[in-house]
Amino acid sequence: MKVVIWAGGLGTRLQEETGDKPKPMVEVGGRPILWHIMKLYASQGFDDFLVTLGYRGDTIKRYFTEYAHLASDLTVNLAENKVIRHSAAPEDRWKVGLIDTGQTPHTGGRLLRVAKFLDGTFMATYGDGVSNVDLEKLLEFHRSHGKLATLTAVRPPARFGALDIQGDQITEFTEKPQAGEGWINGGFFVLEPEVVDYIEGDHIDFSKEPLQNLAKDGQLMAYKHDDFWQCMDTIRDRERLESLWDGGEPPWRMWTPLAAET
Hints:
This protein is an alpha/beta fold. The chain has one domain: Alpha-Beta Complex (Spore Coat Polysaccharide Biosynthesis Protein SpsA, Chain A). Helices cover about 25% and strands about 25% of the residues. The chain has helices spanning about 35-40, 55-70, 105-115, 135-145, 210-215, 235-245, and strands at about 1-5, 25-30, 30, 50-55, 75, 80-85, 95-100, 120-125, 130, 150-155, 160-165, 170-175, 185, 190, 220-225, 230. Strands 1, 4, 7, 8, 10, 13, 14 and 15 form an eight-stranded mixed beta sheet that branches. It has a two-stranded antiparallel ribbon with strand order 2-3. A two-stranded antiparallel ribbon has the order 5-6. The chain is globular, with a radius of gyration of 20 Å. It starts with a strand and ends in a 16-residue tail after the last helix. The relative contact order is 0.18.
């Protein structure tokens, strides 16, 4: 099953990090957030990717064309112009389609431009958010209702620490989902190819008109995920993800880490 990852945006709210690279290449724990997203999919058996490139797409192409060598022990025979790999990487089984979808299209337009590579039900997500969503259960839910589209509904993370106060004394300070804020679109879609019929052109943001019209037609369902989810819109978001990674047990790491990752 294909997994489409939108990776072509400018990342203007992370401009401190995105001057020379696209937002999905901003690092957490020494690895691009794109790598983290792909690892959480691959760890659950979904490792056939289509990455929609745009702004600084060359950076992503270079990363993956060099990945196998950089992740392995090597012998470089300069005399014979050969490179011999001595170790395999878990990512060796990945199939990564790197598709240049242009500089200006929105997410709908980018999906429209990779539609020819889709051959059935597919998954899709944004290139800036991680979660511990159970993808098999998400897919099972999608297949159970027979509609064209499923999105993962999540609780927005708290922008500020929540205070538990007894009298004038703070008894607990926590950061947790803002349950009172309701549900939001967390990405992690399962979609049927027919959803591209709801996209008029490059100017369409998939999260707006297509999802609105799918909902009007009764073709959009929500898979409720009431556990960890975090997007990386701002430097503060990146710092939070970095802190979780440094803590040793990041909630989105659903794979067994290698020594190089710890």
